[in-house]
Structure formats: C-alpha cells, structure tokens
Write a structure and sequence with these properties.
CATH architecture: Roll
CATH class: Alpha Beta
Radius of gyration: 16 Å
Number of strands: 7
CATH superfamily: Hotdog Thioesterase
Number of helices: 3
CATH topology: Thiol Ester Dehydrase, Chain A
Shape: elongated
Order of helices and strands: EHHEEEEEEH
Helix content: 10-25%
Distance between the termini: 16 Å
C-alpha cells in the first residue's frame, strides 16, 4: 500500500510545558523527558484521526511496538518553557509506519529536537508482524507528509 502524501498537509501540533520532573540539576530538560512529549503527541494524533488508544488495540487486536527510536537534540529547553510538538507520519507501509516529531519553543520557534520512530503492527497474542488494518492507514492518511 502506498503512503498518501501531500506537501500542503500541516503537521498536527500539541503544546505542553516543560515541568519540574522534566529537568535535571542544571535546570534544563533531561533527554529522557522528551519521550513524554513524544508519547503525548502520538496519543493525540491518533485521537485526532479517530483512533483513540483506549479503543484501537482492542478493536483491531494489534499492538504497535517500536522497532526504532531516533532523536537529535539541538538546544536545551528550560523549566516552564512551552513547547510545540509538530507530529506527522513520513511513511505508512504495509506492516509499519514512521512517526515524526519536531519539538520547538512555542514562543521563539527555536528548534530543540527532532525525532522519528518506526512502529510495527503485530498481533496481540503472538506478537507476530501483520499487515496494518486498512482503516488505520486511511485514518492516518491526512497526517502523512
């Protein structure tokens, strides 16, 4: 199945503040704290596509575990800084998809990090790879860039 791409598609954006638990003793965001932002953005983009996590796994009897997680860091975010996380899919294949995250300051637009993750569709009982359900591919199509 070919990905649906349209360069005019805007990324899905969530905003969230850097919280006390996200920072280290230097007062800047911990690298691992970015995972919280990615998880929040992923959950919300699926919800926006009509696929809330509270239903998707039961409905299709699948999981979407990560095969790859890659993050690049450019500048540290600080406590109470509001971050925008632009989220989109760069590829939807037969059994996997690539979700991308661009993290920037909501105020200045300065880029803090970029990331992409490869999620693989697997059967819940056997954890064997399987084809992504057509309904998921279609629902996420408007978020492919």
């Amino acid at each position: 199945m070919q990905p649906i791409t349209d360069s005019r598609v805007r990324p899905f954006v969530i905003s969230e503040y850097v919280r006390w638990g996200d920072i280290d003793l230097a007062g800047i965001i911990r690298y691992s704290a970015y995972l919280r932002f990615f998880e929040l953005a992923e959950t919300e983009i699926f919800r926006a596509a009509g696929l809330p996590f509270g239903q998707i796994f039961e409905r299709f009897d699948i999981w979407l575990p990560r095969k790859l997680m890659h993050t690049e860091f450019f500048s540290p975010a600080v406590l109470d800084e509001q971050l925008d996380v632009a989220t989109y899919f760069s590829h939807i294949g037969r059994t996997s998809l690539v979700i991308n995250f661009d993290v920037m300051s909501a105020e200045s637009g300065r880029q803090h990090a970029t990331a992409h993750q490869v999620l693989v569709c697997v059967a819940r009982k056997t954890m064997t790879k399987q084809v992504l359900p057509v309904e998921i591919v279609q629902a996420l199509g408007s978020f492919v860039r």
